């Protein structure tokens, strides 16, 4: 069956300021690899889906940027443009209807634009297993990450104690919201909880049936313009229809209500690279656990430990003295110095810049 | 009697990298005031000596830079150029001989190029008192700073319990080297010790007599070229003589051996601005004790305490998040991020840059 990867890439990513900007969010910058994150993502499933079968749902502004950074192998007609942002359910039905129009039916993998994968071989194997399972069983398949610590930053998935298909595919019992630390610790200790990676695999026909049943208005609106999809009238039809679609996430609108969802517990060095402190889990530090990303001759860390230099431009020389647990970021127009324990507060910088009208820095 | 200020300005100042450089050391940069430090210094005694009576002893490289930064009122013929650096005794005899040639005799105040003075009025008053005392008594007068904490970074001066002249001029009993903390604490608690400020006031005739007696070879060498001073032959004569002068400090060569030295205990908000952490004592912080030097609209400190931003150029926006006790410095070509407790280690950065041949950053 035809396979397709759908990447939802509409987000802003303020937690990686000053690297990520409104115009160039996280997925469009080089953060953990040799290429921009969205290309790193596409590379990851080259052998199971193929970059030529990649679809991206994004907004107009980012689409223009993507045109510059994407592999030539990614068909530009595979970039679906949302006229307004309507959360993930509209985004997914748009992609699913597009695939239905193109292929009748297809295996569709919804994959993140901006996560780091440490073990590509294992990732490919798991995605392949998920695609095979979705094809054979007509079920929704999701991938849960085996937790390595009691994170309070992720949603969790509770799964069955016995595999339902083969040895690796389990019944998904329930989704749970981000827990507090004590609850997270219980989850991790129990061995029956996984991190929700936001990766979903299904047949187009299966997910569209769920939409018809669980989000019937949205389904009807999109079905009404099905004939215009992949025609010169598509843009006009989408622009008329999209703003009226319900703002709802696929997690809340479909996943939490769907029955018989499968989950594959996985361990492929996943990291959602959610904020500056998560680079520690992606790069290997030196003997003092310091990490330099960028031109390594352009900085010096004297008596520093557990410190990251992220040098995106290399124009000003960077010297750190006596720092602990810190991040120094240099871009063309900004310098960020961060205590890793406060990595979430980078958002406050972005908020303050908005308030003070510094559009040039956003 | 003619009064003259002599500023010794030959030093490098690696502890303020990246602001201070080999070519532009501390005294030639704006650090604590509206102007470069040497001009701030000259301003300080406008009312007691006058900037037109300022003499500067420096090297060729810095002399060229000074020509650009100095007040127009400072006579360019008052810049005395050392062909090689020979410590402070040669520097002072060169200046003293010059003043003798120009004025026969004069009151000479040796003042630092790069110290911060918080209370100018009081400083002027003390310098004036020192000049008057030197004039009336033919003694060497030095200024000791009333210690505010048991510093291990300064030499100390032990002084008599009773004033010898008026109510403020004491006998200097002895100079002592930088002590360890316990000793420093004893000194401060005793009330009989002062910090050695390196400010000396004397008559030219008096200090030259000391040279004749205590450093007779140096005296003879300089006396031999006395006729050439202030003539077109001066440069040639100095270049021939200077390299042969003994490398010795005025403290060791004269001061510690001189008898009958007076000291004036003083308190005029003195700070030698020795390293990045000393800016705390010069500037007043905000409610979180943060200090921004430079364009205040070009940085933001979110959840930071006791942190300094020193922005010499303002081209890249600076954001600090969750920092404590830190210094961020931006210059045209470098960024320094420093834990204040390690302020002395900035020197190691300079050493490392030297070793790796980064002359462009020195």
How is this structure best described in words?
- The structure is a homodimer of 362-residue chains.
- Chain A has 362 residues and is α/β, with parallel strands linked by helices.
- Chain A is 29% helix and 25% strand.
- Chain A contains ten helices and 17 strands.
- Chain A has helices at 37-44, 60-69, 88-103, 120-137, 181-190, 204-214, 216-224, 234-241, 250-255, 346-355; strands at residues 3-8, 54-59, 79-82, 107-112, 116-117, 141-145, 156-165, 169-176, 193-203, 262-266, 270-271, 291-293, 299-302, 308-311, 317-321, 326-330, 334-339.
- Chain A has a five-stranded mixed β-barrel.
- In chain A, β1, α1 (37-44) and β2 (54-59) form a beta-alpha-beta unit.
- In chain A, α3 crosses α6.
- The model of chain A has no long low-confidence stretch (mean pLDDT 94).
- The interface between A and B is large, with 38 and 38 residues.
- β15 (317-321) of chain A pairs parallel with β17 (334-339) of chain B.
Helix content of chain A: 25-40%
| Spatial ordering of strands, largest sheet of chain A | 6-9-7-8-10
The shape of chain A is globular
Mean pLDDT of chain A: 94
Distance between the termini of chain A: 43 Å
Oligomer: homodimer
If you compute it from the alpha carbons, what radius of gyration of chain A comes out, rounded to the nearest whole angstrom?
21 Å
Q: Helices and strands of chain A, in N-to-C order? A: EHEHEHEEHEEEHEHHHHEEEEEEEEH
Q: Please describe the biggest sheet of chain A, giving its number of strands, its sense, and whether it closes into a barrel.
A: 5 strands, mixed, barrel
Greatest interface and its participating residue counts: A-B, 38 and 38 residues
How many beta-strand segments of chain A? 17
Structure class of chain A: alpha/beta
Low-confidence stretches of chain A: none
Count of helical regions of chain A: 10
Strand content of chain A: 25-35%
